[in-house]
Amino acid sequence: MYRVAIICSFSISAKNICHVLQEEIEKKQLNIEVEAFHTEDCSKVIGNYDLVLLMPQIRYNLKNISKLLKPIETKVITNEQINHINDLLDVIIESKEQCKK
User: Fold this and answer.
1) Per residue in 10-27, pLDDT tens?
2) What is the Cα–Cα distance from 41 to 78, expressed in whole angstroms?
3) pLDDT at 73
4) Which of 51, 64, 92, 98 sits between 20 and 30 A of 1, alpha carbons compared?
5) How do the residues of the chain divide into helix, strand and coil, expressed in percent and rounded to 5?
6) Which residues, listed in sequence order, are joined to residue 4 by a DSSP beta bridge?
7) What is the Cα–Cα distance from 41 to 100, expressed in whole angstroms?
C-alpha cells in the first residue's frame, strides 16, 4: 500500500481533496491510500507515509516541512491539480512508480 498524506493549515481543504482522490483511486483499483492532516500534526506522518502533498495555501512552509519529514518526498499541490484531480493522481502514481525503482 502506497500511503499519501495531504497537509493543509486547517485540513478542511485536504479532507475534500482526499475524498475526491479516494473515489478516483477506487475506480481505478489502485493500491493507494490518502489521508488529510493539519500542519500541527506533521509529526504523525513520519515513518508512516511515502509521499506528502502540501495544499497551495501552505506552500510557503515547504522548506520547513520537508526538513522535518526528511526523507519523505514532499511536494506542493498546484491549483491546476486541484481543478483536475486526475493530474494530481498522476503525480501520486508517478511518485509511487519512482519508489519501486
Assistant:
1) 878 899 999 999 999 999
2) 22
3) 93
4) 64
5) 55, 20, 20
6) 34, 51
7) 27
User: Is 90 exceeded by the pLDDT of residue 91?
Assistant: yes
Find how far residue 42's CA is from the centre of its chain: 12
Question: Measuring CA to CA, which residue among 26, 20, 2, 1 is closest to residue 77?
Answer: 20
Taking a C-beta distance cutoff of 8 angstroms, is the pair 59, 82 a contact? no
Cβ burial 31-48 (10 Å sphere, 16+ → b, else e) = ebbbbbbebeebeebeee
Distance CA 29, CA 76 (A): 25
Q: Which residue has the cell 522548506?
A: 63
Asked if 25 and 89 count as a contact pair (C-beta separation under 8 A), the reply is: yes
Residue located via cell numbers 501552505: 58
- Give the separation between CA 74 and CA 6, rounded to whole angstroms: 10
